[in-house]
């Protein structure tokens, strides 16, 4: 093989590796979930654009504190594709977690997703354990933020005798299926 063949082969290999490393954007600008469709895909099928409304991108439930009346002392209000149809295929969601004094958000994981926790009221002891079994923990106060990496085990607790309210934002990879599976991993 002559040197031109090597250059050609190296160039073709480089382009192939670049193409394989590409993280594609969504295929369309909008894919509002059609939750009435019986077709099962990765996410929900898309509504026709002619049937989309502003309500498909709106949810008022995050602004209202939840009633905490369970044994763990916390209540989660999710703002995901099941509540906001316009989030379909976008790979983001938001949750409000309300805590009673001493309340707990039990240890859990979110496969393929990073979580960012913002404390609106009170204080939370938060932390996560990496796959190398290393603990990262901190007391987070009103107005502060803590992040937890994907595939780690993490949870939150109010040890300080006060109620707390936080918001969690999830990125790429968290889906309704991940949320349903989370209940099985507690």
From TrEMBL:
<dbReference type="InterPro" id="IPR019780">
    <property type="entry name" value="Germin_Mn-BS"/>
</dbReference>
<comment type="similarity">
    <text>Belongs to the germin family.</text>
</comment>
<feature type="signal peptide">
    <location>
        <begin position="1"/>
        <end position="21"/>
    </location>
</feature>
<dbReference type="InterPro" id="IPR001929">
    <property type="entry name" value="Germin"/>
</dbReference>
<protein>
    <recommendedName>
        <fullName>Germin-like protein</fullName>
    </recommendedName>
</protein>
<keyword id="KW-0732">Signal</keyword>
<keyword id="KW-1015">Disulfide bond</keyword>
<keyword id="KW-0479">Metal-binding</keyword>
<dbReference type="InterPro" id="IPR014710">
    <property type="entry name" value="RmlC-like_jellyroll"/>
</dbReference>
<feature type="domain" description="Cupin type-1">
    <location>
        <begin position="58"/>
        <end position="180"/>
    </location>
</feature>
<keyword id="KW-0052">Apoplast</keyword>
<dbReference type="Pfam" id="PF00190">
    <property type="entry name" value="Cupin_1"/>
</dbReference>
<dbReference type="InterPro" id="IPR011051">
    <property type="entry name" value="RmlC_Cupin_sf"/>
</dbReference>
<keyword id="KW-0964">Secreted</keyword>
<keyword id="KW-0325">Glycoprotein</keyword>
<keyword id="KW-0464">Manganese</keyword>
<dbReference type="InterPro" id="IPR006045">
    <property type="entry name" value="Cupin_1"/>
</dbReference>
